[in-house]
Amino acid sequence: MAFFSKLKERLFKSSSKLEEGLDAIVEEGGEVEEEALAQPETSLERDGTEAQTEPPEVEVPPTMQEPDPLLEEVQGAEISTEKPETPKEKSAGFFGRLIGRGGETATIRRALDDDMLEQLEELLIASDMGVDAALRVTANIAEGRFGKKLSTEEIKTLLSDEIARIMEPVAKPMPLYAQKPQVVLVVGVNGSGKTTTIGKLASQFRDAGKSVVIAAGDTFRAAAVEQLQVWGERAGVPVLTAPEGSDPASLAFDAIEKARTEKADLLMIDTAGRLQNRTDLMEELAKIVRVIRKQDPEAPHNTLLVLDATTGQNALSQVDTFRKLADVSGLVMTKLDGTAKGGVLVALADKFGLPIHAIGVGEQIDDLAPFDPEEFARALTGQFK
Predict the structure, then answer these.
(1) Exposed, middle or buried by CB within 10 Å (0-12, 13-18, 19+), for 47?
(2) Angle made by CA atoms 39, 42, 46, in degrees to the nearest 5
(3) What are the pLDDT digits (tens) for 309-365?
(4) 335 in helix, strand or coil?
(5) Region 254-263 average pLDDT
(6) What is the dihedral of CA 330, 336, 339, 345, to 10 degrees?
(7) Which residues make Cβ contacts (< 8 Å) with residue 66, sequence separation at least 6?
(8) What does the longest C-alpha to C-alpha distance in the chain come to?
(9) For the whole prediction, is pTM greater than 0.70?
């Protein structure tokens, strides 16, 4: 199954929430517009009159001309031409108009006015898209369309287009350089998915023909080192470790020397999870960066911040803090399959403009893929049905 097929399925929480909200907005003050289904064209004779539409007479074989006793019995009975009212028809009401009757289809449309725009803004903000991004999206939708009647599907298409437009500039794969080793520092808060992201990226780079080394920089948790070793085995990549409680900056220093000796293309350094409001832990991260730069003044060449989509708007403060201390160069968003607020990715793109290298929607080694803005926008707005 293609990655974005999984994304479309697993973003159901986000898309269904948006879809339900859009349906409610359009239905409130909307009108049902019925459109007759297209009828077959009537053929005309050369003189302009309608051609005969009655079927041609067909000669009945003699074997079918014999009288049927049962038919003769009922021919004398009175046949009612009135159509009885069934309970389903009697109670069809609004739903009946929606699905259409008598060869007609029905669509609810609502005129785009100030009230509707305000409701759209509130819905997008509730989906964690952020105030600024929500205002920008709705303003662009309203431009040239104010007063026009729109259906839910039309609004979804407009939303999708605007979201894709915001995301397009930040959809960039992680750059690869000729520098060996290319040092990639991976940072993030506790439980954001750093370790699994490193394993998935290492597997992808190895499949692309790159030699990769991983350094288990979370030296304070034995479980984190063990987990990284498991991912290293899955990816076929060596993992460098240090005794529990060792200085992670020292491990990073040694890992660079090791990667140079082995002429590795990439060195991916894991770090301990740390909350952005813990000054001591953030200073420790700054120390790791300083030590790395003693080995190579231009390193780390990439600093990836791994974000958990379920944290919602808190992701904005994480980006703000981590990029000040660690010079974050790109983002990876994980756990999009476990949140009803996938819109936070739009808020991040709108506010910071940092490259989004990849997104993850599961625990399997192939559940991480380059970010595709159009596919993401369609999945978020529920246009995959």
Answers:
(1) exposed
(2) 165
(3) 888 888 999 999 898 888 899 999 998 865 556 789 999 999 999 999 999 877 788
(4) coil
(5) 94
(6) 40
(7) none
(8) 106
(9) yes
